[in-house]
Amino acid sequence: MIEILVIFLILGVLLGLLLAIASVKLHVKTDPKLFNVINALPGANCGACGYPGCAGCGRAIFEGKAPINSCPVGGKATATAISEILGVESDIDSLPKVARVKCNGAANAKAIYEYTGAKSCLLAKNSFSGMKACDFGCFGLGTCAISCPFDAIKMVNGLPKVNAKKCTACGVCVKACPQFIMELIPQNQQVLVNCNNTDKGKNALSTCSVACIKCKKCEKACNYDAIHVGKIAIIDYDKCTNCGACVEVCPTHAILRYENNKFVSVVYEVEEQAGCSGCSTNCER
């Protein structure tokens, strides 16, 4: 019995020595810069970069398969840190972004039926294209808020409200919204088009009282060529100066100014939309 124990002990020691030698001989050296890059990332593991967690993103950046500013959560600070670790330069001077909502429907948008299913915007969309007459607006079920890994979105009066201080511009809510009403915009942008309805003016207004009617008054009022109307009014954020000229002339209040996480009331010089007075001849009603 003792002999057997001695044999097993000797075998254990020999196997241990073989494993130790193999670990030394077969060891693959890893550049410490890789671990430094991974550690420079915020560790949110949200997947907004398109990679499986921060480790995957860090390795892709280290191997040159992803740009230095791949992490939207870390932003410029993280990109700067990584560029210093790797000793390379990168275009990281872009303005920080924040998620915003391209819809102001809620009670302004007509409901066609009462939805009693699970609180999922995707399920609602698959149920007769949603409960709203507007096919482009927010369902108000909070899929974006549930999906946000940073608790930066709350549902207020049937619409998502983004907390700019918590939002990291990771883009998870943008991908989660089946109505495509979430958008990442520069943090300093104050003037927003709060409509995603691409229907012609008459049809858009019949489903929502604050819809963009494509009248092009905003386009004509802008002195900076920063807003153009096609299927919907679109602001060029690189050109927009936040002057608010488009806000003041919009007959349906589809364009609003946004400051300190709140919409700012303005004095409108146009008449109420019921008669649609003052609309240009380009109005597609």
Question: Topology of this protein?
Answer:
Layout: H1 2-25, H2 32-40, H3 53-62, H4 75-86, E1 97-101, H5 121-126, H6 143-147, E2 153-156, E3 159-162, H7 172-176, E4 182-186, E5 191-193, H8 201-207, H9 217-221, E6 227-229, E7 233-235, H10 245-249, E8 255-259, E9 262-264
Antiparallel strand pairs: 1-4, 2-3, 5-8, 6-7, 8-9
Helix pairs in contact: 2-3, 2-4
Which descriptors apply to this entry?
3-methyladenine DNA Glycosylase II, Chain A, domain 3, 10 helices, Alpha-Beta Plaits, alpha+beta, two-stranded antiparallel sheet, 31% helix, three-stranded antiparallel sheet, 285 residues, elongated, 12% strand
Provide a compact summary of the structure.
The protein is an alpha+beta fold. The chain folds into three domains: 32-86, Orthogonal Bundle (3-methyladenine DNA Glycosylase II, Chain A, domain 3); 96-185, Alpha-Beta Plaits, CATH 3.30.70; 189-285, 2-Layer Sandwich (Alpha-Beta Plaits), CATH 3.30.70. The protein has helices at 2-25, 32-40, 53-62, 75-86, 121-126, 143-147, 172-176, 201-207, 217-221, 245-249, and strands at 97-101, 153-156, 159-162, 182-186, 191-193, 227-229, 233-235, 255-259, 262-264.
